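lol so apparently i was supposed to do this last week
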Amino acid sequence: MKKLKIVTIGGGSSYTPELVEGIINRYESLPVTQLWLVDCEEGKHKLEIVGALAKRMIKKAGVAIELHMTQDRKEALQDADFVITQLRVGLLEARIKDERIPLKYGLIGQETNGAGGLFKALRTIPVILDICQDMKELCPEAWLINFTNPAGIVTEAVNRYSPIKKVIGLCNVPVGMQKAIADTLETDMKNIRVRFGGLNHMVYATEIEMNGENKMPYVLERWGVQSMSNIKGIEWHNAFVRELGVVPSPYHRYYYMAKETLEDELEKFKQNGTRAETVKKIEDELFELYKDETLEEKPKLLEQRGGAYYSDAACNLIDSIYNDSGDIQVVNTLNRGAMEEFEYDEVVEISAMITKNGPIPLTVGKLPKAVKGLVQQIKSFELAACEAAVTGDYNKALLALMINPLVQSQSYAKVVLDELLEAHKSYLPQFYNKSVMYLR
Ligand code: G6P
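anyway here it is w/ 6-O-phosphono-alpha-D-glucopyranose bound
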């Protein structure tokens, strides 16, 4: 039988059972022969627990997938076909700091937006670029499927600063939006065609079609709360959404409702802590469940995580590349002229046709004028964040924070930057040791 080897870096993640379930369910079309779960010393304990559950799931399904667990990334990457990155540098403790420190100064504290998002990028990009160097040596033909956040920025950094060009970033937000659009139209997802364009955690549905009819006006008229388990579902004003002309994502609340979202975060911060702290409790519970030797499937509790169905999106994507399906999926990939607002070589989140040679983005053309400024500003922030991450240059990190629309304060930008740099010192060698550079 032909080998098909998938390597998951960050294999000890609580999301792994979902990935294993996705691989098992697609075994006929995607006959994976080896699944490698890789984690570092800090993640070893989680890897052992989740790996044992994965083994039970595979055994129960009766499929011929060899499961390997290792801390030796190079051994795992040798001749891989697909490499999935789902790691969290500094574990949830680092996310808690990303969320708490900005909130202390009255700034949005979120893991992918604003100051928190910048720091997650600064910690993550060097690690991913190292993985890319290993891939160049050990599996240069493999596809890198990244859903490590901030997924758009990480994918941008890989394209810009690594030798790996077969990279695709993934997010579950468009899947959730598609589901909510289908619910609004009181139909099933398979009956509608939705086109997306924008950036990761800043994507818009730009076209909606059902039975050959344009359903955008109908949906905009009724677009209400669509939320996610990790974001407060403040209702949109219909008048605003209608005028916008495209469907915003749940994450747009951080921008269009920045004050309301901040008030909500501050309230929670005072009561039970940030989302990261809630997630930590869910994770602890999940790992208690995973330890149960009679458990042989993904537990329902995993659905309380905002990233539920991520792995399903990853499996769909891998399946379509492997089988050269030519179906449409929403991915983070090079713009290649599909949207006028971005350069040819900038990474965007967009509907694309998935082939064995990768995604071919579908033309969106122009986004409405009303969203153009915001998406371009965020792209500028993303590029500055990438530069800061690869150079370890303090001034570039300050620039990224200052141009982020969620910061809006020179003095707070500096205080928050200094405090986060100090808090994450051990994960940011590029800022402290000038012999560490990731520009290659
Ligand atoms: C959504 C986002 C993901 C993010 C997740 C956070 O799914 O698309 O990028 O990882 O929410 O969920 P959590 O349960 O960790 O707050």
